């Protein structure tokens, strides 16, 4: 008989693979609601309140979470941050038909634009060349896009609020890079435009003075956080915080009913509530421990000659508070770079996994990302630095590569600036045909093409890829990256892509 999914999970749970990935509980054995899960697995029965109209135990639990995060309203999410992002964007959609978004937003932001038929106006983050990661977004970046829209659409800036539904940014990014949330909120609020912060990777913010402030305290209108990514909480759990008067409290509740299951799992909700207890009672101390492990790791990493670790705010500013800058990175991530070596991020990822049983969260063109959490153990950091020291010696013995123009071009294109030929909705719902990717130049794509993780679309329906975009997607595939939205014809060794039918 084939292995059952449960048996596979059991085997993996008992193995020595160390998790530098989500969920943030790091497979630690915690006494909690998930012990004997079937005993506690219910949905809405008498006496247990109702997530969609909470009036009892769930209302109290959400209020407790709101008070912990300093938010006016907090909602439990059982369908991940995805449900929160879909709901928040839907709740602002009646304000205008444009959404100003950072181009490196998660696909759920694009899905919300698709469902609400919003047109997208992009803020393109610059790149931190030394590491090949995208920088954070500044208030000036947002102001430039506002300015451009006002000029193009012939509206006064004070009237932008009638056509711009909201600004959406991701902070921190998958790589831990922060945007200037405070400055962006101040600017957008001057125009009475709400700001939605996808803080899926920053649910731990604000619980230790050396970690960044949460976007709730920075006055964003909606903040969505995946508690499952960086906190000890089960997969799929997240919270949505709502603040201020620019957006409608009733609408967000209505949309949460649309996008969330009508049978929410009480195990997941108890998991969020339980996580709030841990955060309140042990959060600061556990984050303090994590910083100690990080510091010891950082000090040992100084001996690496070929591998570079991206410095967080902590290493850059020696614990002193500083003003925000585009490279600001939070300390809960490790970006481990092999840039400058004849080696890809995927190769590093594979070696760490296969030889050292260290499971990273993701690989980029020439780096890997490890998710750290308050549940990490010192042992994990010891194992990681020992492995990196050995790999560094191995890299030393290899010839240094003069980075070719071709490879540089791969590094550069975290996102394309492909022309939008028709609307997202029109392209997504149009009749399509599958054609060879090489023939897609100049055609209009009808589905999302994303690198996963991080789930940021490389191509959006309605866009027309150029030669460079096509070459890069092929390169990612050749190098073993997981590109979603292309059709692999294994028999003929062909890659196809869905484009809008022309006749
Ligand atoms: C930046 C970002 N936002 C949102 C999401 C969606 O979060 P969830 O998996 O909790 O639905 C992800 C998932 O990886 C993400 O990386």
Question: What descriptive keywords fit this protein?
Answer:
seven-stranded mixed sheet, Aspartate Aminotransferase, domain 1, Ornithine Decarboxylase, Chain A, domain 4, Aspartate Aminotransferase, domain 2, binds pyridoxal-5'-phosphate, 16 helices, 3 domains, alpha+beta, 503 residues, four-stranded antiparallel sheet
Written description of the protein model:
It contains 16 helices and 23 strands. The protein is an alpha+beta fold and about 500 residues long. The protein has 3 domains: about 35-275, Aspartate Aminotransferase, domain 2; about 285-395, Alpha-Beta Complex (Aspartate Aminotransferase, domain 1); about 415-500, Alpha-Beta Complex (Ornithine Decarboxylase, Chain A, domain 4). The protein has a 7-stranded mixed β-sheet, with helices on both faces. Helix 6 packs parallel to helix 7. The longest helix is centred in the middle third of the chain and has 36 residues, at about 265-300. The protein is globular, with a radius of gyration of 23 Å. The mean pLDDT is about 90. Bound molecules: pyridoxal-5'-phosphate. Pyridoxal-5'-phosphate binds near residues 80, 82, 108, 174 and 238.
